[in-house]
Amino acid sequence: MVAFPSVLNPALLSPNSTDITADRNQASWIASINGISGIVGFFILSPIFQSFGRKAVNITLNVVMFVGWITLATASNVTMLFIARAIQGLTVGGVFIAAVTLSEYSTPRRRGYFMTLKKISIGLGSLTCHTLALICTWRQIAGICIIPISLAILFILFWPESPSYLAMKGRFDECEKAFIWLNGNSLESKMELKELINAQTEQHELKKKTENLSQIKKFFRQLNNREMLKACFIVALVTLCIDACGRYFLLAYLTQILEEITGSNTVAMYGSIVSDLLLISALAVSCLVIRLFDRRTLLFGLGSVTIMLMFIISIAVFTKSNYGFLSTVTWLIPCLILLHSFIASVGIVPVAFTISSEVFPLEHRGLCSCISGVAFTIFYAATLKLTPLMIEHTGVSGTYTIYALIVTFCLAILFVILPETKDKTLQQIENEMKGKSDTNSRLLTN
């Protein structure tokens, strides 16, 4: 879904097209409208996530995506393309909901690389999209995309419900069965289960004291919760880092950026395929790296390298455009862009997504997902909408400079407020966000 504009937009803008055509403004709106409709989607999906469980919301996500791809494949005009992308946008909330779901279903030591494997699947989707574009029309690609969505719906039917969700609802017997099914019956698993049930038992006791409060007062009390606000702020910053470091604008517009720099459509198309292969390789490397190193070490270490490369690309493009410097070395700037994409995909992208699935308090997880999701969709839509306009008015050089400054700003704040989360249970992380500590948490960490 994210990479699809790189296939759809050139077809819409082509003067030789025998299918639907659009101008540049319409094409940029078609690319970005799913981010805008994603805001609406979060207000629908978050209550399902919190009230009906993780299975129900994940099935809903995939059914909506199924309808979106069918609408896209059968679209007869620009309006239908807008509608199809808007329907797909309702599922943008899946970025957070699927991540939080995965974090609840996996053990602390495996959570990091499971999240990275999830990112690899997105890279495979992008690679498939760009590769199929060499032999298929955008309609055929949309039809092919229905297949994995159908399989996902089938697989979800066989899931157990999330132990965290069951504990939050006070269904402790079911929670224990689901937890043992997922994590086994080791001493460490039993301690983690005990910690989860004890925390939620305590939370249920606290809820009894506020039973007489109206729903509006409960809602505003949630909004004033310090841990929830801190978690949302952290996730908003790491999300902005993901957008600004090139995660989405390179997937959608790398072909356009490379064509702007090299002047060759062929180089741009094959460059996008190489980028996808590097993305998958980077995420595969990050599976190992995220297991070996702390989250903060990776985020700030490789984040600094990413910022440096973005400034180097900006300077190189500026000097080539204005002074003809490096104009004979046509491969250098594309290689720098691909290297930047690789480093960002090893460091910032997987770590930021992992952190965004770890820091939400359980009792506020639905509302946190909604608030952070709205921020995500605004950043995502703004990135997809503004990137082609920034390239047009400030050039590739100016675009990279602006995004590099944004990443620098976010990492500077995160350096001060971000806790370390590696190999900690979700309950331990929640306790740390609240300023608590206990013996079980220390034992589990050791």
Automatic annotation (TrEMBL):
Keywords assigned by UniProt, alphabetized: Membrane, Transmembrane, Transmembrane helix
Transmembrane segments: 29-49, 56-76, 82-105, 117-135, 141-159, 231-255, 267-290, 297-319, 331-355, 367-388, 400-418
All residue ranges annotated as the Major facilitator superfamily (MFS) profile domain in the record: 1-422
One GO location term (cellular component): membrane
Subcellular location: Membrane
Classification via SUPFAM superfamilies: MFS general substrate transporter
Membrane topology: Multi-pass membrane protein
Protein name: Facilitated trehalose transporter Tret1
Species assigned in the record: Papilio machaon
